[in-house]
Each structure stands twice: as C-alpha cells, then as structure tokens.
Design goal:
By secondary structure, the protein is mainly alpha-helical. Helix content is 70%, strand content 2%.
Length: 341
C-alpha cells in the first residue's frame, strides 16, 4: 500500500537537523548576493522566515536532497559537511525548478501556502528562479571540483528535457497511437525527478573524496529513488488527503495530468475512462468515477508496485556501497518515498 507517514522518524529527523546546521549558513550567504527582490522571493521559496528580505535562522524546507548529498559524502569517507557546496547547489536547482514549474502549471498553492508567482507576481518570480539557478552553478563552481560541476550541468539538461516531455504530454491524446506510454512516462520521470536526486548523491560522494565509479552507483541509487518518489507523488495527486498534499483531492485528474496511475490504467482500453479524462472531470462525482475506474484498471496498484520496486533497488545499492552512514542513508531513502517532500 502507499506509505502515508506524516513526519520523519527520529533518526531521519536527526539527519535533517544535522544537515541544516552545516548547509543553511552556506545557502544564506549565497542568497545574500541577490538583489533584495529576488532575495526575498528566494527565501520565501526555500521556506525560510525572512526579516526585511534577508533570510534568518529558523525552520524551513525538509532539506532531503542536501541530506542525501551529506550522507553520500560521509559514505565516501569524508565528512557530511564536505558536501555543502553540492548540497546547496542541488537545493537551489530544485527551488528554481519549483518556481518555474508552478508558473507553467498555474499552481497557486504549494505546501499549504501561495506559490512564489501568486504571492509576488510572475515577472519577479521568474527572476528569482533565474537567480537561484545562477547561485547553484556559481556555488558549486567555487568548490573547484570539476567532476561535480559537470554532473550538475549535465543534470540541468535532463531536467529541462524531462519538464519539456511532461509539458508535451498535456497535448497528447488519451488513447490511440499518440497516447503516452509507460516507457515514455518513466523516461520523463527520470529526467524531471530522478536525475536531481541522483545528482545530489553523486555530487556528495565526489565532494567527500569518492571515486567516479562510486559516484555512478550513487547516481543510479538516486534515480531509482526519484522514480519511486514520483510514483508516490502521482498517487497523492489523485488519492492524497488535502491536509497532507496541500492540494485539492483528485487535483491531477481535474488538471488532466497524465500521471503514472492514469497512463498505466489507460492500457486497459477502458472507453468510459477515456471519455471522462477527455472531458476533464470538473465535478466531484466525475472525478470520483474516474479515480475508481483507474483503480479498477490497475493503475493505482501499478504505481504502488513501481514505488516499492524502485525503492528496493535503491536500498540494494545502498547496502552494496556500505560505509559508516549506511543505515542513515537507507532510512533517509525510505523517508523520501514515504510522503511528498
């Protein structure tokens, strides 16, 4: 069944708290370089409390990707904090992608509050996203680790291609030869989600003194984790509780999103489901019917099995790599797919 944990277990909480202690100062110092307007919006996007547009110490986003980088650095024989430049860079890239994704999707809420464009306007939000991307590249470049920087720049291309594929899916038909396949969905999810988690782990490994072969293994681990994460996210997009997701129930169905449960279910050839999806089920009873048909056609089970299979693959790589923080890394991996991060 789909995991439904609402809070990280104690061990993961400790890892996330540890990560914030060594990562937050580096990120705050970098964000300080921005003009006051993008600085304010960047802090807002990163979940930081702000004072006059300047980030101050306090609670913020979960920081799973930076924690993944830190544990990878420790697994390579270094210290978790050695990953700080890469952790900050990956978090900046993630925040940049969220700002732009929300604008493209027209989403007004994220994590129970307004999105950046809704709160500050489209133009300022775009500029803030650009600023976050620039900070990501500059922060990692200053580390002097060329291999790590090349991984990040390569992943940026994958991110763009993954987002482009996801956007292209919106115009594709629900059935027939032009319909989105499960294989196409998987390639999109690897680019849009898996590549950045793989980047966090592999860049952390390199900054911790690890070799390129180990970085490749960490990258594969993160990509499996990303596919599992996206499958869970797609499940929540249809069946998630609003108090957990921060979005309306059946949100993805109303938006006509070709998520994994939908794409998998459409392989059954259910004509009623196709008609409902083509009409965009705006009414609650229509959305409920579509969700039921997707479940009956095996779409929900397929997404759940995908999440379980990809999580198992990630955990197997972590077990093979070993290292002093193996158990912490495995616990973090399980948490990543336990709920929307």
């Amino acid at each position: 069944m789909m995991p439904s944990a609402l809070a990280p277990p104690d061990g993961v909480t400790g890892t996330l708290d540890e990560t914030r202690r060594w990562m937050r100062p580096a990120m705050q110092e970098a964000v300080e370089r921005l003009h006051p307007v993008p600085r304010l919006i960047s802090g807002f996007t990163l979940g930081w409390p702000t004072d006059g547009g300047r980030p101050r110490t306090g609670t913020g986003g979960k920081g799973v990707r930076p924690a993944l980088a830190g544990l990878a650095a420790a697994s390579a024989g270094g210290r978790a904090e050695d990953a700080a430049p890469g952790a900050a860079a990956v978090e900046f890239v993630h925040a940049f992608s969220l700002v732009h994704d929300d604008i493209m999707d027209g989403d007004e809420l994220r994590r129970h509050r307004q999105t950046a464009w809704k709160a500050y306007g489209i133009g300022p939000a775009v500029l803030a996203g650009d600023g976050l991307l620039a900070l990501a590249l500059d922060t990692l470049a200053q580390s002097g680790n060329t291999a790590a920087l090349l991984r990040l720049t390569s992943v940026l291309v994958e991110l763009v291609n993954g987002q482009a594929a996801d956007t292209d899916f919106e115009g594709r038909p629900w059935s027939g030869p032009g319909a989105v396949t499960v294989e196409e969905y998987r390639a999109m999810a690897v680019g849009k989600t898996g590549s950045l988690l793989g980047c966090a782990a592999s860049v952390g490994w390199l900054l911790g003194g690890g070799d390129r072969e180990g970085a490749e293994r960490m990258d594969r681990m993160g990509r499996h984790l990303g596919l599992a994460f996206q499958a869970v996210d797609d499940l929540l997009g249809i069946w998630g509780e609003p108090e957990v997701t921060g979005k309306a129930v059946h949100n993805d169905l109303r938006r006509g999103k070709k998520s994994l449960p939908v794409v998998a279910a459409l392989r059954s050839g259910d004509e009623e489901l196709v008609r409902l999806l083509e009409a965009r089920p705006a009414k609650e009873d229509e959305a409920l019917r579509a969700a039921l048909l997707i479940e009956r056609a095996g779409g929900r089970a397929y997404a759940e099995q995908t999440a379980e299979r990809e999580t198992a693959a990630a955990l197997a790589i972590i077990e093979e790599i070993g290292g002093p923080r193996r158990d912490d890394l495995a616990a973090l991996a399980r948490y990543v797919v336990a709920r929307r991060v």
